[in-house]
Design brief:
The complex is a heterodimer. Chain A contains no helices and eleven strands. By secondary structure, chain A is mainly beta. Classes of the chains: A mainly beta, B mainly beta. Chains A and B meet through strand 4, strand 5, strand 9 and strand 10 of A and strand 4, strand 5, strand 9 and strand 10 of B.
């Protein structure tokens, strides 16, 4: 049972444009959400997070939006750069537990 | 200075062998994890320890045995390796129940022939 899903396995975007990565979850107990970026042969690295008490969090070029009623979050990257090309994972947890559940990942390719 | 370090980075072995992967974190965090990334690239949690105590065990075969000698170290021992164990194994650390990120190691790619 995949509680966190990223329905787009891949996405291609032109350099300078906006990249939008989407993530859906099924467990209404999740209250903390994170996005990770992963390059080949490296571990995932943390990008940005959001608590369920907020609907938006921004850090430089990265913005995460949370729609609790739709159980949906998205990561916006503006402007996209070739160095952003990587696999992006969303993750969720219930802050009463230790478990982080990861989505299936979206491979982003930013074209120069 | 790497926050979460794993050894070895690559491991190639025969079916039936026993192997171990070691993990160390210098973040001072209380909670450590093992995740498995399989051929479909899913990141699945296997185990978690908090202050040397096992707190998550996600229906992993008994051939997998984690050990945490202290809260900075979490090792993974795998007995009687099978072809399906081939994957990348990631160690991670977090502050525990407090909201925060998971810090990952670089991964250990295990190939079973």
């Amino acid at each position: 049972d995949q509680q966190v899903k990223q329905n787009s396995p891949s996405l291609s975007v032109q350099e300078g444009r906006i990249s939008i990565l989407n993530c859906d979850y099924t467990n209404s107990m999740f209250d903390y959400f994170l996005w990770y970026k992963k390059y080949p042969a490296e571990g995932p690295t943390f990008l940005i997070s959001i608590s369920s008490i907020k609907d938006k969090n921004e850090d430089g070029r990265f913005t995460v939006f949370l729609n609790k009623s739709a159980k949906h979050l998205s990561l916006h990257i503006v402007p996209s750069q070739p160095g952003d090309s990587a696999v992006y994972f969303c993750a969720a947890r219930n802050s009463g537990t230790y478990k982080y559940i990861f989505g299936t990942g979206t491979r982003l390719k930013v074209l120069a | 200075d790497t926050a979460v370090s794993q050894t070895p980075k690559y491991l190639v072995t025969q079916m039936g062998n026993d192997k171990s992967i070691k993990c160390e974190q210098n973040l001072g965090h209380d909670t450590m994890y093992w995740y498995k990334q399989d051929s479909k690239k899913f990141l699945k949690i296997m185990f978690s320890y908090n202050n040397k105590e096992l707190i998550i065990n996600e229906t992993v075969p008994n051939r997998f045995s984690p050990k945490s000698p202290d809260k900075a170290h979490l090792n993974l021992h795998i007995n009687s390796l099978e072809l399906g164990d081939s994957a990348v194994y990631f160690c991670a650390a977090s502050t525990g129940l407090a909201p925060g990120e998971l810090f990952f190691g670089e991964g250990s790619r295990l190939t079973v022939l």
